[in-house]
Amino acid sequence: MDRVSGALTVFFEDPFWVGVFERISGERLAVCKVTFGSSPKDNEVYAFILKHYRGLRFSPAVAAAVKETAHNPKRVRRQVRRQVGNTGIGTKSQQALNLQREQLKTERKAVCRERREAEQERRFELKQQKKREKHRGR
């Protein structure tokens, strides 16, 4: 059975507070970036997770090496202290976010292109209709 783990990193990225959700399932990493705005309190972050986690749009999964961690309590405490002091997100997460950004960008470009072509077609049809009305002799 695959191991599934998640992590949330909240940090200040001028001028907003940003949260990065990381979901590791098996050996695949998916990431979602959320902008909180003003400084979120712990209970606000917890309420956000409970209410909006299902609706988050995670990036396509990328390969990530999952290391087996030891359960030595002193080591765990040191790791927690490092994570709390750590600001920012990992490079794998940044790659996943960039992949998601590129994917959304291509989707947005396709929609805009379709809209623009439909508008050009509508204008062309309107010109043709006006041209036909002029030639009717009216």
Please summarize what this structure is.
Helix content is 50%, strand content 23%. It contains 3 helices and 4 strands.
Please provide a written account of the structure.
The chain is an alpha+beta fold and 138 residues long. A hairpin with a 2-residue loop joins strand 2 and strand 3. The radius of gyration is 24 Å and the shape is elongated. It starts with a strand and ends with a helix. The mean pLDDT is 84.
As a percent range, the share of strand residues is: 15-25%
Q: Which class do the helix and strand fractions yield? A: alpha+beta
Average pLDDT confidence is 84
How many helices does DSSP assign?
3
Biggest pleated sheet: 4 strands, antiparallel
Q: What is the H/E string?
A: EEEHEHH
CA radius of gyration is 24 Å
Summarize the SSE layout with pairings.
Elements: E1 4-13, E2 16-25, E3 28-37, H1 42-52, E4 62-63, H2 73-85, H3 91-135
Antiparallel strand pairs: 1-2, 2-3, 3-4
List keywords for this structure.
single chain; 138 residues; alpha+beta; 4 strands; elongated
